[in-house]
């Protein structure tokens, strides 16, 4: 039967306002288990006369007879069984709440909100989530994958516990603490049957004859690729489709002859998994190209919650030593 709350708000919490106490609920639940007032009183560590007084007070509060006496003890009435069942539910929920609070303070339960740019999300966050599902399944993880400027904004708005990325130039460095991780290598990626996969060696000049899929102008990875091309004496690609969507990028390079720079962690992941549209191939060229180093970034001077500290510990185990 579904719970039916009083339609009149003035009647809510009426038993509490009449003086209902937890010892009375404990006693009634124990009475339902034992069938004897003396045994129920012993279970809640009070005397039998005190138990009888509590039960009499409870009957006056609910305005109903809760039990009948007989030679072998007592039998609960219909009203008594209903209230005893409700009492048992309340007591179990309080016990469960206590357990959950203990787990939360030990870092075994709670919500942890992680931000990450795409490469570290696959390379660092995914293995940590896999481990958490086994070791601390009650920790809930929310992962936001985005660009560093958006992640930094969410961190400072208290919408993330921490993120793995870079600190945008416009953010005051005094507002955060940073644990350096390392540069993010970039690979040039094509579909597996691309004409360039049949060339050995492949030159950057060969790549410039094809369409390129890159971040929109101003994106950090795009600036990195453009600087690399210019510094190595090459012109910029003539035909560029700008998108920040990794999914769209993968779809385009899997179904056309376009070339895309991708985080090496992302490219390796999708190449190994078969990738969408028949899979992708990493070109053996420009292997030293990398985006500026990223870090594990938190709000300065803030103590992590127990579950966040637990996740941070697992993440730091994934990182190379400083």
UniProtKB/TrEMBL annotation:
Gene3D superfamilies: 3.40.190.290, Winged helix-like DNA-binding domain superfamily/Winged helix DNA-binding domain. Residues 20-77 form the HTH lysR-type domain. The keyword Transcription regulation applies. It comes from the Bacteria. InterPro entries: HTH-type_LysR_regulators (IPR050950), LysR_HTH_N (IPR000847), LysR_subst-bd (IPR005119), WH-like_DNA-bd_sf (IPR036388), WH_DNA-bd_sf (IPR036390). The keyword Isomerase does not apply. Keywords: DNA-binding, Transcription, Transcription regulation. Transmembrane segments: none annotated. GO terms for molecular function: DNA binding; DNA-binding transcription factor activity. It holds the Pfam family HTH_1. GO terms for cellular component: cytosol. Belongs to the LysR transcriptional regulatory family. This is Transcriptional regulator, LysR family. It comes from Albimonas pacifica.
């Amino acid at each position: 039967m579904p719970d039916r709350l009083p339609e009149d708000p003035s009647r809510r919490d009426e038993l509490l306002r009449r003086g209902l106490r937890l010892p009375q609920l404990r006693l009634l639940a124990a009475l339902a288990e034992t069938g004897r007032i003396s045994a129920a009183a012993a279970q809640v560590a009070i005397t039998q006369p005190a138990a009888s007084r509590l039960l009499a007070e409870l009957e006056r509060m609910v305005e109903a007879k809760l039990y009948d006496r007989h030679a072998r003890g007592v039998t609960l009435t219909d009203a008594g069984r209903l209230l005893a069942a409700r009492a048992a539910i309340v007591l179990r929920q309080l016990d469960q709440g206590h357990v959950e609070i203990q787990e939360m303070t030990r870092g075994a339960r709670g919500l942890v909100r992680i931000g990450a740019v795409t490469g570290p999300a696959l390379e660092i966050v995914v293995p940590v989530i896999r481990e958490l599902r086994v070791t601390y399944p009650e920790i809930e993880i929310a992962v936001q994958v985005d660009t560093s400027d958006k992640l930094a904004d969410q961190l400072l708005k208290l919408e993330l516990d921490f993120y793995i990325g870079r600190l945008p130039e416009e953010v005051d460095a005094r507002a955060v603490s940073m644990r350096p991780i390392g540069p993010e290598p970039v690979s040039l990626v094509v579909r597996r049957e691309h004409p360039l996969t049949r060339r050995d060696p492949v030159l950057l000049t060969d790549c410039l004859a094809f369409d390129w899929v890159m971040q929109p102008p101003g994106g950090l990875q795009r600036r990195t690729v453009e600087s690399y091309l210019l510094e190595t004496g090459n012109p910029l690609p003539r035909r560029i489709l700008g998108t920040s969507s990794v999914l769209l990028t993968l779809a385009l390079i899997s179904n056309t002859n376009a070339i895309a720079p991708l985080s090496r962690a992302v490219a390796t992941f999708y190449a190994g998994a078969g990738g969408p549209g028949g899979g992708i191939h990493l070109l053996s060229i420009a292997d030293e190209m990398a985006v500026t180093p990223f870090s594990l970034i938190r709000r300065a001077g803030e103590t992590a919650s127990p579950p966040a500290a637990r996740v941070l510990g697992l993440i730091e185990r994934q990182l190379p030593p400083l």
